[in-house]
Specification:
The protein is mainly β. About 5% of the residues lie in helices and about 45% in strands. It has one domain (about 15-40, about 90-500): YVTN repeat-like/Quinoprotein amine dehydrogenase (Methylamine Dehydrogenase, Chain H, 7 Propeller).
Amino acid sequence: MGTRPRRQIFAVCGVLLGACGDDEPATSDDTTGASTGTSTVDTGSESGNTPESSGADDTTSTGEAESSETGFEPPVPECGNGFVEGDEECDDANDVDDDACSSACLLPCGVDWTAAHLGPTQESDIYGVSVAVDGAGNTAAIGFLREVTVDKEGNQTIGEVSTIVVALDPDGTERWAVVRDQVGLAVAPGAIAMDPNGDVYVAVASERMAGGRDVELVRLAAADGSDVWTHEIAAPVVDGVDVPDAVAIAPDGDPVLVATVRVADMDDDVWIRKVAAADGSEVWTTSYDGMAVGEFSTDNGGPLAIGPTGELFVLAQPYVDFTTSPVTLLAYPADGGEPLWTWTPVHDGAVQEFFPLGVALGDGGSIWVGYQRLTSQVEFWLAELAADGTLVATFDRDHFIGEMGDEWRMGGLAYAAERGPIVFGNYRAGFGDDDWQEAWIAQLDPRAGLRCATTLQVEGGGLVPPAVYVNGGAAMPDGGPLLVGELVDDPESALWVGRFRPQ
């Protein structure tokens, strides 16, 4: 398996999108009042060029003609005059900085830039899965890629699943992109992390000739994405389909990997392994086997967070029986071993199957956990725990959504230091066949309510806007949300990254 460069096709925008709320505690009515704007991303050109405009001279001459005919000279754009002009996102005719429009005429939760990386052909499948950021604001995303080509007769050739990794500068400019693939075998994306120096760690599932998939952790150089080393998990079952769930960097600089590993027939365990950053060798491994009832024991790994002194928090999904699969937070010491404590939430209802969405460390040693249940409607929760696992508070979907309807789904969470948790996911807009997906973000002050909430609608050329599906996210060094997913502007899709301002 190796890497090969991919063509760079993306667009960077600093444009308008809707937001709601202010720095005051938000209510459901605040959320209901969210306005939705547009963000334009160019994904329709093989070269990445945008269509040519009529030119500055044409615009100037047109403006002069209108002025001479009407005798009206357009005012100079000025923030605070009550008119949205130039690069302004809003203008409420005041200089108050903490209302629905800032003194710089910017919307709360507004987008700084978006970037989209297209597949090799218009028919190819490509989308982002996970995203990471270093201390300087450089970002990297891991995604799914399957190349699809169509000949002149309309016959399709569908390639194997491969993994794409895209690195971006702090302003969203693409620095490099590499694809990990194997001839005739799949390489499926898992998770991604970045160390303080900008090196990238990607976890993938590589198909084997003997059957099954093995988990690999690969270190890529910050400068160009070239391989530094590859570490493979040698699972007990040769043909098992192992899954990479999460990767994060410990305070000492070593990466820690969480994976779901087949250890026997109908028996999957959660493996947690620390790997030496210097050479990719194993430092230690520990595993978790849930309390299964019956012949199955198919436990699943999940998100990972690492504390300032190396303590580990894994949000797993242990299997109990056919109707019971709770989420369980596992707290480990820095050197692995047995869990220090566990926490399993319980909610009323006949269905006791919950899915882990995210875990993040907050201020003062707090731990934040996101999970959901899928029944006749989507239910999700955000829980705050103390350092010893004691439940502090629980927020359900109504805390974020209020009266806006039930077409919302949480996709994950991050934590912005000294600000609070960031919850993100998707909102389904429109009706019936004319619906589409929008990115959704809520920035929360855990003691005072929502700081702000917004959805992002991307502008396209059709009657129905392009869809944005959010699959992962992180917090930038300044606390701004960073999201990754898929942009679908029928018939083309792209790996999409969006960077939003903190509130």
